[in-house]
Design a protein that fits this description.
The chain is an alpha/beta fold. The chain folds into two domains: 58 residues; 134 residues, 2-Layer Sandwich (Nucleotidyltransferase, domain 5), CATH 3.30.420.10. Helix 5 links the parallel strand 4 and strand 5. Helix 4 crosses helix 5. The longest helix has 22 residues. It is elongated. The termini are far apart.
Length: 220
């Protein structure tokens, strides 16, 4: 009887692929620290150090996120919500720019050191290239940089900017995966992110995984 072939991705790893995948999924799916994941696995009789789990998230997280993106056939909605949130990294201000559609699915996320037209333009260019489509409506707060970038890159798109609008990317009370709330929870648990690279790596993996378990909220 022939032995089943092992995925080359897991070669030279002592633990089975399903254990590794489960640990990585726990870390990115829920607001858990590495030590919390270590404790949860230990409760099931799987003794793994949090440092090993860290190495798994760095190696396998990106692979999982890329597979999810390739398999996802969902087209983005026609309304895009854009917003930015301040993030302190090593005592310096950075801005986490996020775009979601009307159902709360994350379209893209980008960490930048600026909060100006150049940064807004960079986010929109990345969005248009990645999505391969133009929205019917763009919803933002009243930051003027959005208007300037939209006029240059999406002149025919209806732009609605008002602080009172239900911007799904901004609303921290939203149940959608697209709000900044999951990021803030993780930030508190980790006692701040260590570097800009760390933030971008985590969010680029977290959001595709969160999209898998997101149920669109229908307004009455």
């Amino acid at each position: 009887m022939t032995k089943p072939t092992r995925d080359p991705l897991y070669r030279r790893h002592r633990y089975p692929a399903d254990v590794i995948a489960h640990a990585v999924w726990l870390y990115f799916r829920f607001p858990l620290s590495l030590r919390m994941v270590e404790d949860m696995l230990a409760a099931r009789g799987i003794i793994i150090s949090h440092e090993t789990i860290r190495s798994w998230t760095e190696k396998f997280g990106r692979q999982f996120a890329n597979k999810i993106r390739r398999r996802s056939a969902r087209r983005p909605g026609c309304k895009w919500h854009l917003d930015e949130a301040v993030v302190a990294i090593a005592g310096k201000k950075h801005w986490l720019w996020r775009a979601v559609d009307e159902d709360g699915f994350v379209l893209d996320i980008l960490l930048q050191s600026r909060r100006d037209t150049r940064a807004a333009r960079r986010l929109m260019r990345k969005l248009l290239k990645k999505q391969g489509a133009v929205p019917r409506v763009l919803i933002t707060d009243k930051l003027r940089s959005y208007s300037a970038a939209r006029r240059e890159l999406m002149p025919g798109v209806d732009h609605r900017s008002h602080n009172g609008l239900n911007n799904r990317a901004e609303n921290s009370l939203s149940r959608t995966s697209g709000s900044h709330l999951p990021f803030r929870r993780r930030e508190r648990i980790m006692r701040r992110f260590k570097s800009a690279r760390h933030v971008q790596r985590f969010t680029s993996i977290h959001d595709p995984i969160a999209n898998l378990f997101h149920l669109p909220r229908h307004e009455p």
